[in-house]
Amino acid sequence: MAAINSSKGVHEFVRVRRLRYGKCFKTKLFRETHVFISRTKSAKAILNNEVGKFSKRYIKSIAELVGPNSLLCAANGHHKMIRGRLSSFFSTSNLSSFVSQFDELVVEALNSWDTADIVVIQHEALKITCKAMCKMLISMENGHELEMMQKEVAHICEAMLAFPLSLPWTRFSKGLQARKKIMAILQKAIEDRRNGAGTCHKDFLQLLLAENDAVTTLTDSEIQDNILTMLIAGHDTTACAMTWMVKFLDENKEVLEKLVKEQLQIANKLKPSSYLTLELLNEMRYASKVVKESLRLASIVQWLPRLALNDCEIEGFKVKKGWNINIDVRSIHLDPSVYDCPDMFNPSRFQAESIPYSFLAFGMGGRTCLGMNMAKAMMLVFLHRLTMTYKWKVIDSNSSIEKWALFTKLRSGCPVRLTSIKSLSI
Ligand code: HEM
N or C: where does the chain have the smaller number of CB atoms within 10 Å of the terminal CB? Predict the structure, then answer.
């Protein structure tokens, strides 16, 4: 609890114990045994389910907030079925249309910053990613509804690490109330679609309702839990990553210069009045390394939780069935035996081949982040438009982490002073 409440973030609890007990250690959390591991070899074995069998398990508060049918928490068989159904939405052709839609949102947002001297990147990035997710998932575009959705999702995210005590005044209870409100909105959206309203939308909800395979049709609660999951997994994480990226670039001017050079070449290829395409994103080789390095250094998701289904042995440790195994992503990302000068922001490090299972920002194996390519695309689009529109100076360089945050979030929100390079109007 002290770590959750500290400015060093919840990972401090793990870091201190890792220094004291080594790369694999066992501790008690909420009366359960947790093993933390931070060797790439063990990460590979666990993520590929080589040693014995593992399933996914989040702590009780997270599991209750995302719901029993969420892909994030579903156990192996159920997970395979739901993942199969949701994957079709993440095809290359859907990603292509998403890129131009997202670019349109970013251009609009960055245009609106023109009159502001200072903007808080975290707040702005959250607005952009929430808008993008709500449009992609349920074609929600109304300003008031979007604001409400963002507020409720924030309540859920804040409750993720709370003690799961459901009394009216608790953080956890606020999260559950927010979940209830979002579930009601989603239920209404499902009913409207069944009654013929909005069926022209090419969104995630429509895709799930339209696929009518009797063997794998998802129930309404499976659809609701997984739309909420996408909102939580896709919007807060990506906004946090964008914010860190802006901070790292401000602190590393040589990287920024090299990036701007590349982005100018991309801008020259972009036809006037048109939006970015997936093909153009694929040409952003240096920017992709900037994205990857930002994700490594920030480690937005700090560990990957698993459940041991059998007794087994990891790094000489006897693990009992039912214990929680956490792959300590942040420690792997910052391990000097894995990355040279791990605290340095150096995108060019990814020119060389990296050690297998050393980059775990999106996980690996059967539970790899489903929205990985979408997240990278959002970060690239944002980078392109930001560098081609503004110069910025971070005015609060404090690196403290937001309290009660499951994802690594800058407490300052990263306020920046902007200077416009050119008008963005398309
Ligand atoms: C920078 C942004 C993002 C980061 C850092 C991130 C990271 C992760 C990580 C670490 C996992 C867990 C992997 C594991 O436990 O092995 C995960 C799972 C997941 N993510 Fe992401 N994610 C991001 C964006 C997104 C987006 C944009 C979406 C969708 C719109 C998304 C959807 C999901 C889903 C559905 C899962 C569960 C996959 C499964 O269990 O099969 N994520 N993500």
Answer: N
Q: What is the pLDDT of residues 97-133, one digit of tens each?
A: 999 999 999 999 999 998 888 999 999 999 999 999 9
* CB distance 96 to 278 below 8 Å: yes
Could you identify the atom of ligand 1 that is nearest to the CA of residue 407?
A: 5
Calculate how far, in angstroms, residue 376's C-alpha sits from the geometric centre of ligand 1. Answer: 11
Q: How far apart are CA 163 and CA 171, in angstroms?
A: 8
Provide the whole-model pTM.
0.94
Confidence at residue 419, expressed as pLDDT on a 0 to 100 scale:
93
Residues 174, 60: Cα–Cα separation, whole Å: 15
- When pLDDT is cut at 50, 70 and 90, the band that residue 1 belongs to is low
What confidence category does residue 214 fall into, taking pLDDT thresholds of 50, 70 and 90? low
Q: Whose CA is nearest to atom 37 of ligand 1?
A: 72
Ligand 1 atom nearest the C-alpha of 379 is: 1
In this structure, which amino acid lies at residue 325? I
Q: 296-299 contacts: CB < 8 A, separation 24 or more?
A: 296/333, 296/339, 296/359, 296/361, 297/244, 297/248, 297/333, 297/343, 297/345, 298/240, 298/241, 298/244, 298/245, 298/248, 298/408, 299/11, 299/329, 299/330, 299/333, 299/334, 299/361, 299/408
Q: Which ligand 1 atom sits closest to the C-alpha of 365? A: 16
Ligand 1 atom nearest to CA at 229: 35
Average pLDDT, integer, range 126-152: 94
Query: For residue 88, what is the DSSP state?
Result: G
Mutate to test the pocket of ligand 1, among 137, 362, 367 (most ligand atoms within 8 A of CB): 362
The residue whose CA has the least distance to atom 2 of ligand 1 is: 238
Average pLDDT of the residues in 76-102: 92
Q: What structural domains does the chain harbor?
A: 11-420 (1.10.630.10)
pLDDT of residue 8: 67
